[in-house]
Amino acid sequence: MTTHLTRDISKIAEALRFGQTVGIPTETVYGLAANALNEQAVASIFSIKGRPTSNPLILHFYNLEQARPYMEEFQEELYLLEQHFCPGPITFLVAKTPRVPEIITAGLPRVAVRFPSHPMLRTLLAELDFPLAAPSANKYGAVSPTQALQVKEQLNGLIPFVLDGGPCSFGLESTIVGVEGQKVVIYRLGSIPLDDISVVLGYIPEIKNQTSASPLAPGMVKFHYAPNTPLKYFDASVRAKEGIGYLFYQNIPDGFPHLQCTVLSQGGDLREVARNLYRSLIEMDAKGFQQLYIEKPEPMGIGLTLLDRLNRATAKFQ
Ligand code: TXA
Ligand code: MG
Question: Which atom from ligand 1 is nearest to the alpha carbon of 28?
Answer without folding.
Answer: 1
